[in-house]
Amino acid sequence: MARISVLGGTGYSGGHIVQEAARRGHDVVSYSRSVPAEPVAGVTYRTGSVLEEELLAGAVADADVVFDALSPRGELQGKLEGVVDRLIELATGHGRRLGVLGGASSLLVSPGGPRLIDTAPPAPELLPEIQSGIDVLDRLKGAPEALDWFYVSPAAGFGAWAPGDRTGQYRVSDDVLLVDEDGKSFLSGSDLAIAIVDEIENPRHSRARFHVAY
Q1: Cβ neighbours of residue 186 under 8 Å, at least 6 residues apart?
Q2: What's the half-sphere exposure (Cβ side, CA atoms, 13 Å) at 86?
Q3: Among 39, 72, 74, 175, which residue's Cβ finds the most Cβ atoms within 10 Å?
Q4: Number of other residues whose CB lies within 10 A of the CB of residue 144
Q5: Distance between CA atoms of 132 and 135, rounded to whole angstroms?
Q6: How far apart are CA 207 and CA 125, in angstroms?
Q7: Per-residue pLDDT tens for 32-72?
Q8: What is the pLDDT of residues 181-197, one digit of tens each?
Q9: Where are the alpha helices (DSSP H) in the chain?
Q10: Structural domain of residue 54, as residue ranges?
Q11: Which residues of 105-119 are buried (b: 16+ CB within 10 A; e: fewer)?
């Protein structure tokens, strides 16, 4: 059993991760601005802002693995990179494993490129969030060698707008986008959570990004 801190544990992705980790018997603490309407049994919920040093430091110190499922929106718009910088410092100092949920736009559409973002330019209003995900990955790549980190890029069609069903199946890639026979890249929230908790239980990606889709 691992002690797992999930930052953003009541959001779409974080909520699924919290639920899956608790289902498998892990000691899970969710950090968010508020408590969910339907708390998951066995999960400890702590509220506050990740911009508060005390909360962030406690989340790292009290865990074996810290998973960042935060989105660069609201109070974190333009500030998530700074939060990750601090997480890198804290996780390195405490010897904790750090996981981060990113995006799919920086994935390559085929071995050697180009990137998805270069073949299908996003709407201008989405660019800041996409760039934040790219910047966070770069920060992790530059982290001290002592830090064991992993960065997860979900399918291009992943999100609360397309929740999908739990199948218990998924495929894994490194930097190359996975698509199905119809050329679509999709993954449900439940199956993303399965892939992430699988990685926590049986680490296969150290200091690396991996991609999950059907």
Answers
A1: 155, 156, 157, 158, 162, 164, 180, 213, 214
A2: 17
A3: 72
A4: 11
A5: 5
A6: 30
A7: 999 999 999 999 999 999 999 999 999 999 999 999 999 99
A8: 999 999 999 999 999 99
A9: 12-23, 53-61, 80-94, 116-119, 127-141, 189-201
A10: 3-213
A11: bbbbbeeeeebbbee
Region at 24 (left for phi over 0; alpha for psi -120 to 50; beta for the rest): alpha
DSSP state of 62: T
DSSP string computed for 137-182: HHHHHTS-TT--EEEEE--TT-STTS-----S--EEESSB----TT
Domain count within the chain: 1
Contact 32, 11 (CB under 8 A): yes
CATH number at residue 22: 3.40.50.720
Structure tokens at 195: 């892939």
Cβ atoms 156, 177 nearer than 8 A: yes
Q: Which amino acid is at 51?
A: L
Q: Which residues pair with 46 in a beta bridge?
A: 31
Q: Which residues contact 77 (CB under 8 A, 6 or more apart)?
A: 128
Q: Tell me the two tokens of residue 1.
A: 């059993």
8 Å CB contact between 168 and 191: yes
